[in-house]
Automatic annotation (TrEMBL):
Protein name stated in the entry: MCM family protein
Domain MCM C-terminal AAA(+) ATPase: 356-556
PROSITE patterns: MCM_2
Keyword list, A-Z: ATP-binding, DNA replication, DNA-binding, Nucleotide-binding
GO CC annotation, single: MCM complex
GO molecular function, one term: single-stranded DNA binding
DNA-binding keyword on record: yes
Family matches, as InterPro entries: MCM (IPR031327), MCM_dom (IPR001208), MCM_OB (IPR033762), NA-bd_OB-fold (IPR012340), P-loop_NTPase (IPR027417)
Residue ranges that the Swiss-Prot or TrEMBL entry lists as coiled coil: none
Family according to the record: Belongs to the MCM family.
Classification lineage: Archaea, Methanobacteriati, Methanobacteriota, Methanomada group, Methanococci
One Pfam family in the UniProt entry: MCM
Organism field: Methanococcus vannielii (strain ATCC 35089 / DSM 1224 / JCM 13029 / OCM 148 / SB)
One record GO biological process: DNA replication
């Protein structure tokens, strides 16, 4: 125990001992009994100018006639519950935020969910963004923060219900931006730190049951409990020795359990530094009340390492503290200044008779000349419609001779967030839809694992499908295009996956070249049920004339000479609307904003 600069003087030590003895006497006289916890907090509160180490504080309290084992026990207990903690220099500090503080705030902000027994999701930045103690803890030991919230939930929940507290009933979302990262950036320096990232579900296991609180009992009557933060941190079958000398037995009936699921997540292609490289993936474990099977998810968790069997090499996994499907996540609202900027541009276009859709469609597909109607249709496909009785996605088919830009259009659209590109000729049935396999997982023995295909993995986006022709694969499009779902049945297991995707497809005429003497539909090599599910079918074959050829040549030269910063591996293109410069970022913001609007058709049109 030392002060700020030198060893604690005997006079100061004696002063603190006398003060402790006086405090305990007054406490006993007024309240009936003083506790070791109260005394420890009293010392740290009243002597903040003195730096106490753990051993130094123990010796001082023992000098005040307190029991040695009691002092050691309660210092450890207060540290375990984060009421006191060691700073980076090894000195004890009283926490700026206690479990009771968090408990009170949970009751103030989330009492409705707690009363109904529903999970509580804490918006960290909104509720604790100014709490320097919790922010520091989140940096140094994030597990302590989650443990504090769990214990605070238990403290707040106990007076509300007689049932046992569910351990998974509190989660944290919306961390500061500095914790956001990509799957590909997770490495050895990430272990034990808090991270937040997005991923596409490659595979999902069925739920398993995990021990959350292990209870051990001894023949002498003593019981011990161990709370587990991580499924891999303790084997409950390990022997625990009692103070009486006998080994304690794991008590399955009185232990507490939670559901746990294993996910394999892939980094979204649009967030990779080089889209041409294979995307990274990682395995995530999380305690859950609801299953996740597909789509894009947001994960908040703590990376940990697990040793391989026969080498001093470790794999990195994530123990998630919160996993939410992107479709169910409350998205961060668009900046009000951006919304105001968009509204000014829309008003300017309306007042000056400018077709804003035409300008934006140029940004979406800038390298292709002409096809104004097609580009506008594809732009509206990305904006989507309002959710109602009908599907809010439209399906578009592009038909033309080879070499007219179909694949270029599909690839450009696939780079939009949540979209993807694929060729029907090189894709299997399960690659398009989904599959159920029996594999050995890292938790427990083998079990069912769902593996979403292209149409399921990009739920909520657009799938660009090239080389669409009559084959065994085209029939797999039918259900997704019409009902926006995929049903899979295998070995007695049946699953229904959401597949709310828009299809942007392209194909060549049957004979490879268009026959002008025949109707376009007759030359599409697809079955009638598939053709019927396309809302718009476009003929991309242009009329041959000298003027058109010159315009195409000018466009090719312009594309070749255009020099601008790169965005996601592509040349950034801008367009001007009066004094406003519109770029790809503006297009992204515009689509994000308009997707959230609930558009109604006026009754005058209906009548």
């Amino acid at each position: 125990m030392v002060d700020k600069t030198t060893a604690l003087m005997e006079t100061t030590k004696e002063e603190i001992i006398r003060s402790v003895q006086t405090f305990r006497k007054l406490k006993n006289d007024n309240c009936g009994k003083s506790t070791a916890s109260d005394t420890i907090i009293y010392v740290l509160d009243n002597y903040q100018d003195v730096n106490f180490t753990v051993d130094g504080l123990k010796q001082l309290l023992i000098g005040a006639k307190m029991n040695r084992s009691t002092v050691s026990k309660y210092i450890g207990k207060l540290m375990d519950t984060n009421i006191i903690y060691e700073d980076p220099f090894g000195y004890l500090r009283k926490s700026g935020t206690s479990i009771s503080d968090i408990s009170k705030k949970l009751l103030d902000n989330h009492i409705k969910q707690m009363t109904n027994g529903k999970p509580v999701i804490v918006d960290f930045q909104k509720e604790y963004g100014a709490d320097t103690f919790l922010l520091d803890k989140l940096d140094s030991n994030p597990n302590d923060v989650f443990r504090m919230f769990s214990e605070a939930y238990a403290e707040a929940y106990t007076p509300l219900a007689k049932d046992n507290v569910a351990y998974y009933n509190v989660a944290i979302k919306n961390l500061p931006n500095k914790y956001r990262c990509k799957i590909g950036n997770l490495n050895s320096t990430s272990i034990g730190k808090i991270v937040e990232f997005e991923g596409i579900v490659l595979s999902a296991s069925v739920n398993k049951v995990m021990v959350k609180k292990a209870v051990y009992s001894c023949a002498c009557g003593k019981k011990e409990e161990y709370a587990l933060d991580n499924v891999f941190e303790k084997d409950v079958s390990d022997k625990v020795k009692c103070n009486c000398g006998k080994y304690m037995v794991f008590d399955e009936n009185n232990s507490k359990y939670v559901d746990i699921q294993e996910l394999t997540l892939q980094q979204p292609v649009e967030s990779t530094d080089n889209p041409q490289e294979p995307p990274n993936d990682i395995t995530v474990f999380f305690e859950t009340t609801s299953k996740i099977w597909n789509g894009k998810v947001n994960v908040i968790g703590i990376p940990f390492k697990k040793k391989q069997k026969n080498a001093p090499v470790y794999d990195i996994y994530i123990y998630a503290k919160h996993v939410v499907s992107e479709e169910n996540a409350s998205k961060r609202p668009l900046d009000e200044t951006k919304i105001a900027h968009m509204k000014h541009i829309v008003e300017y276009c309306n007042n000056n008779n400018i077709d804003l859709l035409d300008k934006l469609s140029e940004l979406l597909i800038p390298t292709i000349h002409g096809y104004e109607i097609i580009r506008k249709a594809i732009l509206l496909q990305q904006i989507k419609g309002s959710v109602g009785l009908n599907r809010n996605n439209i399906h578009i088919l592009l038909v033309s001779d080879p070499g007219l830009g179909k694949s270029e259009i599909l690839r450009r659209v696939s780079k939009f967030p949540k979209n993807t590109y694929g060729s029907l000729a090189g894709t299997s049935g399960v690659g398009l839809t989904a599959s159920i396999d029996y594999v050995k997982s890292l938790i427990g023995d083998s079990g069912r694992v769902s593996k979403p295909g292209l149409l399921v993995a990009k739920n909520g986006g657009t799938v660009s499908l090239d080389e669409v022709t009559v084959n065994d694969m085209s029939i797999h499009l039918l259900e997704a295009m019409e009902s926006q779902t995929i049903h899979i049945a295998k070995a007695g297991a049946t699953l229904c996956f959401p597949a709310e995707v828009a299809i942007l497809a392209a194909c060549n005429p049957k004979s490879g070249r268009q026959d002008k003497s025949k109707w376009l539909i007759e030359q599409i090599e697809l079955s009638e049920p598939v053709i019927d599910r396309f809302d718009l079918i476009f003929d991309m074959n242009p009329e041959n004339n000298r003027e058109s050829d010159e315009e195409i040549a000018q466009k090719i030269i312009k594309n070749y000479n255009y020099v601008s910063p790169m965005v996601n591996g592509d040349t950034a293109v801008t367009t001007r609307v009066g004094e406003y410069i519109l770029d790809y970022s503006f297009l992204m913001d515009f689509i994000e904003y308009t997707r959230a609007l609930n558009v109604k058709i006026p009754e005058s049109v209906e009548n």
